[in-house]
Amino acid sequence: EAKDRGKGGHQHFRTGMEARGSDRRRLIDALTTAIDDDQLILHYQPVVSLPDGRTTGFEALVRWRHPADGLIGPGAFIAAAEESGLIVPLGRWVLNRAARQAADWGEQAGSISVNVSGRQLQVAGFADEVAKALRTSGLPARRLILEITETTVVGGGATRTNLDGIRAQGVRLSLDDFGTGSSTLTTVAGLSVDQIKLDRSFVDSDVIARAVLLLAQGMNAEAVAEGVETPAQADRLHELGYRRAQGFLFGRPAPSDEYGLTRARVGGP
Ligand code: C2E
Ligand code: MG
Ligand code: MG
Ligand code: MG
User: Fold this and answer.
1) Predicted pLDDT at 99
2) Which residues of the chain have pLDDT under 50?
3) How far is the CA of 253 from the centre of ligand 1 (A)?
4) ipTM above 0.95, yes or no
5) Residues around the ion ligand 4 (C-beta < 5 A)
6) Which residues of 204-223 are buried (b: 16+ CB within 10 A; e: fewer)?
7) CA of 146 to the centre of ligand 2 (A)
8) What is the model's pLDDT at position 35?
9) Residue 267, pLDDT score
10) Are 225 and 203 in contact (CB under 8 A)?
11) pTM for the full predicted model
């Protein structure tokens, strides 16, 4: 998706599905360096309550500050990171960085949502890594939300154990991009999640938006509408019963210092 790419002018790397062979190899090598050389950064997008638009938390979204190509969005490298397994160290970095940022911001910043790939969840001990990230950062478990997808959930390996272990700590789980995966309603209804995010491709469909809201209510989960861009969409979703939303209307993903929440860290960064 061209719109997901950075504003870095010339796009050096081709995105996920296109990049093959040596292109893909180069991308993976460069991404390995990026993780080691601190070229990754996080942007934060507000999650708000409806109808007031008050910020109740943030979602952390990774970007790559490429030395030659500028800012590259996750659409250009997450798929390659998942295929190569690099998503495991990359995701570990994201989790720790986001937890530390949210702890630095303090309680007034609310929740912090972090995207977690299926590959990470398959690794035995991932739930312990989450616990460690909380301990190291000082972030209370109740402020952390891990976003997973329908495909993630049926991932096998240690997935089930990790999901249980994560929730046992008081960390919340959110089902991201809901409706775009291929899981059956049986699978979804059997999940223990705290939040369901209506994918932005459904924001204009009353039928789907209403069905997802009812499903969320039946699962005792909160429904969040993603990709809200206009006041009319926000009004409509609120009318349907949505109490949480996210989208360009309320705020674009931006660096942490653009939120005016940054607090001096004792002992410096
Ligand atoms: P996502 O988790 O569903 O994140 C929401 C995406 O929608 C973000 O794109 C965000 O910038 C975009 N968005 C938010 N509001 C609007 C809106 O009103 N209109 C439109 N058109 N778009 C909106 P972004 O940052 O490019 O991220 C794309 C995807 O990359 C994410 O989708 C997520 O699946 C993945 N991703 C991002 N960061 C990470 C990460 O740290 N780890 C993993 N595993 N995946 C990540
Ligand atoms: Mg997400
Ligand atoms: Mg999403
Ligand atoms: Mg999405």
Assistant:
1) 98
2) 1-11, 17, 264-269
3) 9
4) yes
5) 177
6) eeeebbeebbebbeebebbb
7) 9
8) 93
9) 39
10) yes
11) 0.91
Q: C-alpha distances in angstroms, 172 versus 127, 193, 195, 252, 263?
A: 12, 7, 8, 23, 25
Residue appearing with tokens 């893909």: 24
Q: Hey, what are 100's tokens?
A: 């530390």
Q: Which two tokens stand for residue 143?
A: 């402020």
Ligand 1: list residues with CB < 6 Å.
4, 45, 61-62, 73-75, 78, 87, 91, 94, 115, 117, 147, 176-177, 200, 227-229, 246-248, 253
Q: What pLDDT is attached to residue 188?
A: 84
Helices (H), 169-261: 185-189, 206-218, 231-240
Q: What is the dihedral of CA 57, 61, 62, 67, to 10 degrees?
A: -100
d(CA 197, CA 71): 26
Give the pLDDT of residue 92: 97
* Residue among 115, 178, 246, 248 whose CB has most ligand 1 atoms within 8 A, to mutate: 115
